[in-house]
Amino acid sequence: MSHHQSPLIVDLDGSLIRTDLLYESFVRTLFARPWVLAFLPLWLCRGIAYLKCRLAQAIEIDVGALPYNRNLLEFLQEQKTQGRRLILCTGANERLAREVTDHLGIFDEIYATGNTHNLTGERKAQFLRERFGERGFSYVGNEHKDLRVWRFARSAVVVGSSRALAENAARVCQLETSFPTAGPTLSIYLRQVRIHQWVKNLLLFVPLVTSHQFLDSQALTAALLAFVCFGFCASATYIINDIADLDSDRAHWKKKRRPLASGALSIPVGLLLCSGLFLASAVLATLLPLWFGAVLLLYVVTTLGYSFLFKRLQTVDTVVLAGLYTTRILAGAAAIGVYPSYWLLAFSMFVFLCLALVKRIAEIYRKQDEEGEPARIRGRGYFTSDLPVLTSLASAAGMVSILVFAMYVNSTEVVAMYSSPMILWLACPLFAYWIIRMQIMASRGEIDEDPIAFAIKDKRSWITGAVLGLVLLAASTVSV
Predict the structure, then answer these.
(1) What are 224-241's pLDDT values in tens digits?
(2) What count of other Cβ atoms lies within 10 Å of the Cβ of residue 397?
(3) CATH code at 377?
(4) Which of 24, 149, 440, 457 has the maximum number of C-beta atoms within 10 A of its C-beta?
(5) What distance, in Å, lies between the first and last C-alpha atoms of the chain?
(6) What is the CA radius of gyration of the chain?
(7) 134-148, pLDDT tens digit by residue?
(8) Is the dihedral of CA 160, 166, 169, 174 positive or negative?
(9) DSSP bridge partners of 13
């Protein structure tokens, strides 16, 4: 019997799918039903199999959205058409494994972890040896512990980025084929920490500019340190948010390519990276004023609240998003030891509320374009029919922010800080142009959900920002 005639035993975690269902179950339980995890030690005392069973019972996983290894799946479908028996044998819980087999519809049999036995490692090897006989099956695996199975197999199908694994498998049985997958690269790590989103943290420099301390080397150093510190912290919270959003991200046309959602980065590595970023941020925070640390803690608590709950609450989510932007300005002020003016805070809250609404408008517009009829936005508290209301609210918030700035130009504080405060009136049409443009672009579907990310790539936004900088500089230095 050739290896093409022998039944092909397929591993699930890390092989057929680019993730692990135990970790997927754990993080979903953590975010959806965190109180259940209080029983985790008791479950673990009864064995890993029982733990997998209880976690699988606690949550629902959309198996259709899991990051399947497409090359392997195509190979399996081809083998199926040629009459080869395909059998799923996995250490994942039986309930979840059966949902996968029902979804794919290509497997003839299924063997998985039950309530009392954990079908992994040596136990899996002995089970397959007894069930199919030595050299009576072929096996698809992805890690070194699968060598325990391959030593009894007729042939090996190797999945993964390790060339050494394929070589070792070839030493104990015939190598049928392999499916190399790229390991995590620096680019993947940078995408996961959303390094491009650090541009939002430039808001920390706003108090430095508005207080006219940008030439003070001590204040500038503190602001730069706060920028890096806040960047590490924000990147860590992005990871938490991505883990919380696995299902909705995988159902999204673009977010499904994010490292955690696509399986390019594993959940344990993501959690480890998150911990490292939080630690680095905490260390840097000790070098800054205590009030900065307090604001940073407020940001973390609010962001975690957003990831766990607020983002699913209609209206609350946009207010919280606007508050998170404003928190960056508060952090910048705390870092250099100044009090942000009420004008700055009022302007910030309204303009960021506008941007938060634009973010939702862009998301809803995309969904509306896909569905063509009223539908709920997955993972959010909105329907596509909410688009007109959100558009009017975004317009109102944007115009109010311009009104606040105009009132600020006429305030007594401006006279003491600017040589020619009347020049600041030129900023009003610039703000109006940029805000109206963002809303129009969102309504056209040209903003990819995050208006800040859009602005980074938008030449007109850069030009508007440059002209606004010249206006502020002229108002500060030119005497009229």
Answers:
(1) 999 999 999 999 999 999
(2) 22
(3) 1.10.600
(4) 149
(5) 94
(6) 27
(7) 999 999 999 999 999
(8) positive
(9) 17
